[in-house]
Amino acid sequence: MKSILENRPELARQVADVAEVAGYLWQKGWAERNGGNMTINITDAVDAEIRALPAISGRIPIGKELPHLKDRYFFCKGTNKRMRDLARWPMDNGAVIRICDDCVSYEIVADHPVKPTSELPAHLSMHNYLIGKGSSYKAAIHTHPIDLVAMTHHAPFLEKDVLTRLLWSMIPETRAFCPRGLGIVRYQLPSSIELADATIDQLEEYDVVMWEKHGVCAVGEDIMEAFDMIDTLSKSAQIYLTARSMGFVPEGMSDAQMEELKVAFNLPK
Ligand code: 2HA
Ligand code: ZN
């Protein structure tokens, strides 16, 4: 069977980037079994021939009305598919979907009738929010980093901006490359509409959002950028944990050093 990626270098490149990141998530130990998911808005890489393709599924409800997504296309990891398999065979473990005119359902267009991730309501809500505010961001990622998730099991870290400041202060790069910090969503049932709604509330202020006792979510221009922000925050968490395991509480950069960095890099917060 011919893949939708054939003779479409831009689409193939974007899917290859998702596959590359899927491999990183597995190698980092953040993606046990089917854990985590990714979606990218591929509408700009979709041509008339793809638009004319008949669906290979019925209409499937999203569970929410998402008015900005009408006629948009996404590549999504499949539900119950392993991240490490997505890395090797992206089109067998993911699917291209088209949002229907009613904005409450979608259909699968290619390559195989792989049902999208269980976190589709959260992912599509994030894309809907981003398009609605005129953002150029095209990628959303959810994964289970051990260090960052462990930190959400400690109530003081869940207060607003406590983790942001702690992680920023471990190494200058974290503030520079994750300049909007880290939002917190209190525990919600995985895959729920409540989790989706709470996540988009946090996106008004943050590009990366922790899901208490579950995982992290990030949005970015592309999938590499979204991954890099989580990777940078995880690096800071590792520095913190390493210092604690050596028996001391790390000093962290001082307020003056943090302020100097903010001015030098022209950071938003
Ligand atoms: O895809 O990570 O949150 C499996 C999950 C659900
Ligand atoms: Zn998860």
Describe this structure in words.
A hairpin with a 5-residue loop joins β4 and β5. This protein is α+β, with helices and mostly antiparallel strands and 269 residues long. The longest helix is centred in the last third of the chain and has 23 residues. Helix content is 39%, strand content 16%. The protein has ten helices and nine strands. The mean pLDDT is 97. α4 runs parallel beside α8. The N and C termini lie far apart (50 Å). 43% of the residues are buried. It has a nine-stranded mixed β-sheet, sandwiched between helices. It is elongated. Zinc ion binds next to loops.
Please give a quick description of this structure.
The chain is 39% helix and 16% strand.
Primary descriptors:
269 residues; alpha+beta; nine-stranded mixed β-sheet; 10 helices; elongated; binds Dihydroxyacetone; binds zinc ion
